[in-house]
Write a structure and sequence with these properties.
570 residues, mainly alpha, 78% helix, sodium:proton antiporter activity
Length: 570
């Protein structure tokens, strides 16, 4: 059997055993599936099970990361991301850089090479915590902020680490300290320039590649082609951006966001959407299984135990550095948020910054020209902090949510839907009681009691809905757009019925449909049509058809002749 065949067979066995044991362990112990897989890997490492599959930088950065970033981006609610974009950008960009600097200062005397370690360990990984959020019913806003920050700061973290590593490697080659080789100002300038180029380049590549694939999906709506195109997009955008010196991680995330928002909602029919979503869900499941099992297998248990004190100190400093940055940045962002993140939510944002796949990929990719002692110590620290982060933080997220009362409180959107559904039921009951009273099937005294009871509840429901919408403008906004979408869909159905019955046809029929579709597109993009259209420079096309009849629709007629027909037409 060849080496390739051996690796493939072992890969299948590892995935099969790990999946079975991981699912069983997660259900029995009631822990997230990814953490259960990590424990499976730890167990196999302690037992000493032989394996030829190794965790390498290439596996993480070139195989696992592009797919998971794309799939994560495609699953993000873009409307919620728009509403919470400021805290996400602040935490993923300036927040990550500031946390690296804070850890660099705090760990200077503990490690000596603190800035390199800080740049390596601070990028966050939200794979496990998002699964926990779903299990305990955390607010969607909190999930959106944590997951989106994690997706975006991967690219920022790699860019910062690359710049710092280049300085450190060059300093070691010259036999001088990094501080002697580059001043703080020079390093800051290099990091800023690298971040700007990597972020902007990755964004542009993701937008262009995502749009091209979206247009292709519009032309050819096919399930298998959709899956193929999204796979090509995920890896193609990542590799293309990386080849151009930009951030492949940001490119993959942006491409996923664009396809998830536009391609899956407009370009594909329901069956194709289901096929694409199911396929990517299976891909993410398998890649997460492989990643977390290999992390457990590759964690140097003996070295970890020997350096447990140092690893614990590093873990505490990493968590502290994140909290030092999270509170002020989120407080600043809250000034512009329609739904500010509460202090309890800020606790969760800080604690949910898990550190795993990206830090491990970076430490595995350290160049060979660095001193071997430095590389080994960094490897122990990074793997140790990743293990602490996943186990300690990952396993305590749910209790923290419960203690803060976040997991038990339903999202404001869900409360709004509950209240409006009950209000519809109350209105239906009042209407039915009125109808039965008119037909004398309901006695007057009983009818009065019904009206008093249901009327009292109706007033309380309306008050609760009004206060909820006033307190949560984003809920009001989504409710308005949802109502407008239903109205426009009814309008479109009426237009389609008129076309089928022959009331209107040809170019007029096309223009009627185009008008409704254009308004629906604006609603899907979060823009309301409920305003005077003329303020947006919009003119209904049907007004051209009545210009020849000298009909004025801009000013109401007050002479009492509204609706009178032209005698010449009779």
């Amino acid at each position: 059997m060849s080496v390739l065949e051996t690796v493939l067979v072992e890969l299948v066995v590892v995935l099969l055993v790990a999946t079975t044991v991981g699912v069983a362990l997660s259900r029995i112990a009631n822990i997230p599936y990814t953490i259960a897989l990590l424990l499976v890997g730890f167990g196999a490492s302690v037992i000493g099970i032989p394996h030829t599959i190794g965790l390498t930088e290439e596996i993480i950065l070139l195989v696992v990361l592009p797919a998971l970033l794309f799939q994560g981006g495609a699953n993000v609610d873009l409307q919620r991301l728009r509403e919470n974009l400021l805290p996400v950008v602040l935490l993923a960009g300036p927040g990550l850089v500031l946390s690296i600097l804070v850890l660099g200062v705090l760990g200077r005397y503990a490690f000596g090479y603190s800035l390199l370690f800080a740049a390596m360990i601070m990028p966050t990984d939200a794979v496990s915590v998002v699964a926990v959020f779903e299990d305990v019913g955390a607010p969607k806003q909190l999930s959106t902020v944590v997951e989106s920050e994690s997706l975006l700061n991967d690219g920022v973290g790699v860019a910062v680490f690359t710049t710092i590593l280049a300085v450190v490697a060059e300093a070691f080659q010259r036999g001088i300290s990094p501080a002697e080789f580059a001043s703080a100002a020079d390093l800051a300038w290099s990091i800023g320039f690298e971040l700007l180029g990597a972020s902007l380049g990755g964004f542009l590549v993701g937008v262009v590649a995502g749009y091209l694939v979206y247009r292709t999906m519009v032309v050819a709506d096919d399930a298998m082609l959709g899956v193929t195109l999204t796979v090509v997009l995920a890896y193609g955008s990542y590799f293309l951006a990386d080849a151009l010196g930009a951030s492949g991680a940001i490119a993959a995330v942006v491409a996923g966001l664009l396809i998830g928002d536009r391609g899956e909602t407009e370009a594909l029919d329901p069956q194709t959407r289901i096929t694409v979503a199911t396929t990517w869900g299976a891909v993410a499941f398998l890649l997460n299984t492989l990643l977390f099992v290999l992390i457990g297998l590759e964690t140097p248990i003996d070295a970890f135990v020997d350096n447990a004190g140092l690893v614990l100190v590093a873990f505490v400093l990493v968590v502290l550095s994140r909290f030092v940055v999270v509170y002020p940045l989120v407080t600043v962002a809250n000034r512009w948020l329609a739904d500010p993140l509460s202090r309890s939510s800020q606790h969760v944002v800080g604690w949910s910054g898990l550190h795993a796949s990206i830090p491990i990929a970076l430490v595995l990719g350290l160049p060979a020209d660095l001193p071997i002692a430095l590389r080994e110590e960094l490897r122990v620290l990074v793997f140790g902090v990743a293990a602490f982060s996943l186990l300690v933080q990952g396993l305590t997220i749910a209790p923290l949510l419960e203690r803060l009362g976040i997991g038990r409180r339903p999202p404001a959107d869900a409360v709004y839907r509950l209240l409006t559904a009950r209000l519809c039921g109350v209105d239906a009951a009042l209407e039915s009681a009125s109808r039965l009273h008119r037909t004398e099937d309901l006695p007057t005294d009983l009818y009065v009691e019904f009206c008093e009871t249901y009327g009292w509840e109706k007033r309380r429901l309306e008050t609760a809905i009004s206060q909820l919408l006033e307190r949560y403008p984003s809920v009001r906004r989504r409710a308005e757009l949802a109502g407008e979408r239903r109205v426009l869909e009814s309008e479109k159905e009426a237009v389609m019925e008129a076309i089928k019955s022959g009331v209107v046809e040809g170019e007029d029929a096309d223009r009627l449909l185009e008008t409704v579709d254009a308004r629906l597109e604006r609603v899907e993009a979060g823009e309301s049509n409920v305003q005077r259209l003329e303020e947006r420079g919009f003119r209904e096309f049907w007004r051209d058809a009545i210009d020849a009849y000298d009909i004025d629709v801009d000013e109401p007629q007050l002479d009492g002749h509204e609706g009178r027909s032209n005698p010449d037409d009779e």
